[in-house]
Amino acid sequence: MAASPLLGPSSAFITSAPLFFPAAHIPKISSITFHHHQRSEKPSPLHLHITAPNIDSYRRLRAASADPPPPDAAETSTIGAADRSKDRRKVVKLAWDKLVRWSRSWRSKARTDVLSTTKKVVVLGGGSFGTAMAAHVAEKKAQLEVHMLVRDRQVCQSINDRHLNFRYFPEHKLPENVIATTDAKAALCGADYCFHAVPVQFSTSFLEGVAAYVDPGLPFISLSKGLELNTLRMMSQIIPQALKNPRQPFVALSGPSFASELMNKLPTALVVASKDKKLTNAAQQLLSSNHLRISTCSDVTGVEIAGALKNVLAIAAGIVVGMDLGNNCMAALVAQGCSEIRWLATKMGAKPTTITGLSGTGDIMLTCFVDLSRNRTVGIRLGSGEKLDDILGSMNQVAEGISTAGAVIALAQKYKVKMPVLTAVARIIDNELTPRAAVLELMSLPQVEDV
């Protein structure tokens, strides 16, 4: 056995741990012995004899120089999920911030001169929605005169003396700039805008009676929803024809809204529709507030027909509740009703997107599924077995769906559209079919492709 220099040829066979340590931590090596072998033989490992006092330092340096162990699968999954969640939150925040910036930019450019130049508004009708709209507009500008033309002298006195409509909102104080009158000439004289809130079936005779006091350029904003029973006309046809002025400016206001929630300043979204874009923009500015969002639309037919037919569908939805037919039946019936409304509306020239929008599907959902709906309430009572005459005798408000149902069927025949659900409602209202028989007949209809 012979000794070999540390850097001699045999050093190529050193296979032990790295010998590169910081100077302060070099372990004391008592001896290094190399074993020479024949070239054909496999070299043996290097034997290091390290003194005990420095072995702990050596082990620490070995641990520090080694790569960290890879994380296990669970740890990797947790880290990945946290990163993804952080990225998702960042994306959502950026999207929201962009939306808010766009909204603020749009509002800063929006015109507001309509309200500033409007001095007088008249509301025709003293019902719940007419009262709610009068209160809403009056609160936007204290200097604005809001005149309500009512036929009930007691309601008129209640509004003027106590600032409340005791018949519909006995607990809601009206703004002091809401003034009631039974004098059509005084109400309409000098008005900048007119809100029509008279029920559809009485609108023609009412308008003919006040036509002499209506300025030919006075914009009418219709709050009434429905179809005239004998003529099948919508309000966009009734108003100009009753006033004998085919150019009378007209806007339809529609969408999912209960008067009581509007009075309570709960968030609400509505649609104004007119063929005159400037007029829709003016109506939007007049009505928009921090709790009432107004969208504009040019599809007057779609907005009006959806607002009329949804009342008939709501009666059907109420019947399902009154008969306790369950949620499956309710969903199927309303879906079928929505399709029927779309079929007829598009045949009449409406846009399908209007029917699936706020003034269509939005209004349908509210009227069909919420107990505040008058038409749904009528349906519930019919489904429970009550007679229609008894129901109508106990109501102090008009359920437009009752009179609209017959008109809907006439329209369906005119445009050659099959409307089984809405036709069944009309038959029930005419007392020619019981709710139970109607359900059995509808369930027996041919099962066709869903469109």
UniProtKB/TrEMBL annotation:
Pfam families in alphabetical order: NAD_Gly3P_dh_C, NAD_Gly3P_dh_N
GO biological process: carbohydrate metabolic process; glycerol-3-phosphate catabolic process; glycerolipid biosynthetic process; phospholipid biosynthetic process; systemic acquired resistance
Record domain Glycerol-3-phosphate dehydrogenase NAD-dependent C-terminal: where: 299-439
GO cellular component, one term: cytosol
Catalytic reaction equation(s): sn-glycerol 3-phosphate + NAD(+) = dihydroxyacetone phosphate + NADH + H(+)
Protein localization: Plastid, Chloroplast
Domain Glycerol-3-phosphate dehydrogenase NAD-dependent N-terminal: 120-279
Keywords attached to this entry: Chloroplast, Lipid biosynthesis, Lipid metabolism, NAD, Oxidoreductase, Phospholipid biosynthesis, Phospholipid metabolism, Plastid, Transit peptide
GO terms of molecular function: glycerol-3-phosphate dehydrogenase (NAD+) activity; NAD binding
Pathway(s) per entry: Lipid metabolism; Phospholipid metabolism; Membrane lipid metabolism; glycerophospholipid metabolism
Residues covered by region (Disordered): 62-82
EC number(s) from the headed UniProt entry: 1.1.1.8
Major subcellular site: plastid
Sequence similarity: Belongs to the NAD-dependent glycerol-3-phosphate dehydrogenase family.
Protein name (Swiss-Prot/TrEMBL): Glycerol-3-phosphate dehydrogenase [NAD(+)]
Organism per entry: Kalanchoe fedtschenkoi (Lavender scallops)
